[in-house]
Design a protein that fits this description.
The protein has 8 helices and 3 strands. By secondary structure, the protein is mainly alpha-helical.
Length: 185
């Protein structure tokens, strides 16, 4: 188990990563709202999660659940999460690596990049299983884009990680390379 804890890569241009913090806050607040719904959470996930068969037009949601157009769920699904561990893992990676990508891109370009990566990942999921009726949720696709950008921009940046019970510092290309391999597996 390899868990990144912080990078040793100071911001150079923006001073503070407003967009990264706002995205984390939006995901956390959405999750708090999600769990506050209790049993109605399942209906909300059906309404706002990205369901490939609904996006492709193969199936339709019941009118009571069709609260947004199907293509909008490519965005809304990015802010929902399946569990607090799912949310925590995504937000940890966004917190550690997002600020430096935002620093390199600027606030507005970073927000656009984040959303485009999330939508692209959702569309890839739709393409892989266009008849699936299972909703997908989470920021993992957007986070993957951020990690890819970090890897290109700062491959040698040092990342403090927890490896089982040991704290070790590794280059970003090792930490993120292992993460990408684990995702592929």
């Amino acid at each position: 188990m390899l868990i990144p804890l912080k990078d040793e890569n100071p911001l150079r241009f923006i001073g503070f990563a407003y967009v990264t913090v706002a995205l984390i806050a939006a995901c956390v607040l959405t999750y708090v709202w999600q769990v506050s719904l209790g049993p109605a959470q399942e209906r909300m996930i059906l309404a706002l999660g990205a369901i490939p068969a609904v996006i492709t037009g193969e199936k339709a949601l019941p009118a009571a659940l069709a609260v947004v157009p199907a293509h909008v769920t490519l965005v809304t699904s990015m802010f929902l999460h399946g569990s607090w561990l799912h949310l925590g893992g995504n937000m940890l990676f966004l917190w550690i690596f997002g600020d430096n990508v935002e620093d390199a891109m600027g606030h507005v370009r970073f927000l656009i990049f984040y959303l485009v990566c999330g939508v692209a990942a959702a569309l890839a999921h739709v393409a892989a299983g266009p008849d699936s009726q299972i909703p997908t949720v989470g920021a993992s696709g957007a986070i993957s884009g951020v990690l890819g950008a970090y890897l290109v921009l700062h491959p040698r940046a040092q990342v403090l990680t927890l490896f089982f019970r040991f704290f070790i510092t590794l280059p970003a290309f090792v930490v993120l390379g292992l993460w990408f391999v684990l995702q592929a597996v």
